[in-house]
């Protein structure tokens, strides 16, 4: 036997209200329309739902049981409506984000946590990749957005890029490194110590080669390569190795007091860190809400990052 869910919801409203008129008012129906619906439900089950000639209105045991089912249906219906509204507002859903490893570890993971503190019903799937992987994932509908650096030459076809931070690299070392005693370093000083290389495909790898080219005949002794941000920092704190890092990454890690910035001029890349998405209207409101949150988060940090950069890096 199939019962109308609408009829069960209407029955629960009448039982909870204690009268036909109040139940009709709660549902926004006319009393005759509600009376007809309940009569149809009674005809369907073949037994009375209310005790006859009782005032106030009193449900039969069957009516009470069916009203309980109607009440649950109404609760789930409201939850479904709230879920749809949350999805449309971007406060519920799934965001698939990919980005360059050092930035994802140092900054974006923290921003994701801050976003979820405000919107706990938004889930995230985070992965690592560079520009090519992010572009392919967006076009294949496997990602919602990417956090990648992009040169000034322009964005890939069919994708939209929102800059959030100008690239600025620095040379980092462990705290107490011998080079920290010299307040006037040159790029030649950098060739006397071993280096850590970033992951293959990382734009930082090209930046490291640019530093090597600036040394002229001096080559760089690369002792360790391909690690995550945590492994690179752990390695540096136990050695005299140097690494080229985005200043913003050091900024995010500065409170750990494990690595320092060396005051030395190095070749700077012409690119911006930003958010890469498919061009056109946003398909995922939660992803768009997070994208806006990232933009605002970096805007809030810009002045503080610049102040630290001027004080820490160019303090000579």
Automatic annotation (TrEMBL):
It holds the Pfam family HTH_1. Signal peptide: none annotated. Gene3D superfamilies: 3.40.190.290, Winged helix-like DNA-binding domain superfamily/Winged helix DNA-binding domain (1.10.10.10). The keyword DNA-binding applies. Residues 1-60 form the HTH lysR-type domain. Keywords: DNA-binding, Transcription, Transcription regulation. CDD domains: PBP2_LTTR_substrate. InterPro entries: HTH-type_LysR_regulators, LysR_HTH_N, LysR_subst-bd, WH-like_DNA-bd_sf, WH_DNA-bd_sf. PANTHER family: HTH-TYPE TRANSCRIPTIONAL REGULATOR YBHD (PTHR30419), NITROGEN ASSIMILATION TRANSCRIPTIONAL ACTIVATOR-RELATED (PTHR30419:SF8). Belongs to the LysR transcriptional regulatory family. This is LysR family transcriptional regulator.
